[in-house]
């Protein structure tokens, strides 16, 4: 029989929405249980904002050596990227943030419950052999998953999402990024800085289509200066994955085909 525990609030999902709600509720004096099946912090902390910003910091250092050092009389070159070391530094940043969040939750009296949650009733959540009863209510903060673009059959190896991109153990020699929103532009920028040949394809008329069009146009000029081939108003019409790479055919005024080691659906 399940052990019964009573809380004021039970929250399913310890991503940004879930843990923020938990901390605020605890500050207001409520007894809170926060249920998470994987890592606390969710996508942003573990597979999104934080690890990508760590990679972009490394890219900024590389660009600073290549483009900025000489101006100040500093003779320096980048001999290569030790990707395992870079990845370890990224993971260390993530781990410190996760540990810090865990300490914050504990110090505020939030009980973190690891496991898969099942909603047994509007006020009861079952996790393993525990039944968590909520006197005030249950909050569903189960998050989201990376979006995919229909013409791109994700295989996790040649055609990947941002989750797989963060798990790579090397810098790809070349990459095609389909989708020029914030995620796509971040990975395109990072990979270009650390030596990959990058092609960026966006179906809408400008890069960063959710932002001001002037920003997208200025970004296009900046990416071009950095050697990134960016296409807008481009519709992907065919994708062919082989053992040695992926070919993407798209229409942007005329039909074109590009080939790379991998494709990121962003």
The geometry reads as globular
* CATH homologous superfamily label of the largest domain: FAD/NAD(P)-binding domain
| Sheet with the most strands: spatial strand order | 3-2-1-6-5-4
Spans of at least 5 consecutive residues with low confidence = none
According to CATH, the fold-level topology of the largest domain is FAD/NAD(P)-binding domain
What structural category characterises the helix and strand content?
Answer: alpha/beta
Number of domains: 2
* Termini gap: 45 Å
Indicate the proportion of strand residues. 25-35%
- The averaged pLDDT comes out at 94
Q: What CATH architecture of the largest domain do you see?
A: 3-Layer(bba) Sandwich
* Gyration radius from CA atoms, angstroms: 22 Å
> CATH first level of the largest domain: which class?
Alpha Beta
Estimate the helix proportion, in percent: 25-40%
Query: Helical stretch count?
Result: 7
Per DSSP E runs of 2 or more residues, the count of β-strands stands at 14
What can be said about the biggest beta sheet?
A: 6 strands, mixed
H and E string:
EHEHHHEEEEEHEHEHEEEEE
Characterise the protein shown here:
The chain has helices at 16-27, 42-47, 49-68, 83-107, 162-165, 182-193, 213-225; strands at 3-12, 32-36, 111-114, 117-121, 124-127, 130-140, 159-160, 174-178, 197-201, 229-231, 235-242, 245-252, 254-260, 262-265. The protein is of the alpha/beta class. It has two domains: 1-144, FAD/NAD(P)-binding domain; 159-265, FAD/NAD(P)-binding domain. Strands 3-2-1-6-5-4 form a six-stranded mixed β-sheet, covered by helices on one side. The protein has a five-stranded parallel β-sheet with strand order 7-14-8-9-10. Strands 11-12-13 form a three-stranded antiparallel β-sheet, with no helix packed on it. β9, α7 (213-225) and β10 (229-231) form a beta-alpha-beta unit. The longest helix has 25 residues, at 83-107.
């Amino acid at each position: 029989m399940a052990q019964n525990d009573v809380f004021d609030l039970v929250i399913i999902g310890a991503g940004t929405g879930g843990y923020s709600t938990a901390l605020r509720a605890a500050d207001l004096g409520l007894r809170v249980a926060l249920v998470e099946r994987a890592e606390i912090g969710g996508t942003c902390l573990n597979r999104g904002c934080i690890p990508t910003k760590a990679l972009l910091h490394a890219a900024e250092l590389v660009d600073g050596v290549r483009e900025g050092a000489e101006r100040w009389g500093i003779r320096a070159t980048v001999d290569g990227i030790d990707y395992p070391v870079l990845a370890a530094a990224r993971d260390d940043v993530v781990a410190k943030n996760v540990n810090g969040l865990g300490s914050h939750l504990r110090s505020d009296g939030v009980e973190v419950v690891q496991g898969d949650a099942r909603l047994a009733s509007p006020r009861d959540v079952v996790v393993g052999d525990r039944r968590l009863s909520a006197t005030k209510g249950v909050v569903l903060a189960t998050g989201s998953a990376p979006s995919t673009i229909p013409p791109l059959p994700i295989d996790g190896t040649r055609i990947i999402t941002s989750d797989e991109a963060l798990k790579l153990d090397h810098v790809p020699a070349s990459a095609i990024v389909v989708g020029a929103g914030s995620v796509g532009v971040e990975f395109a920028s990072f990979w270009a800085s650390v030596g990959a040949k990058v092609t960026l394809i966006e179906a809408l008329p400008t890069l960063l289509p959710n932002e001001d069009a002037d920003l997208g146009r200025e970004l296009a000029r900046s990416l071009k200066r950095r050697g990134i081939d960016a296409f807008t108003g481009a519709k992907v019409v065919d994708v062919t994955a082989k053992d040695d790479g992926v070919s993407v055919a798209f229409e942007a005024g005329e039909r074109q085909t590009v080939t790379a080691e991998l494709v990121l659906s962003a």
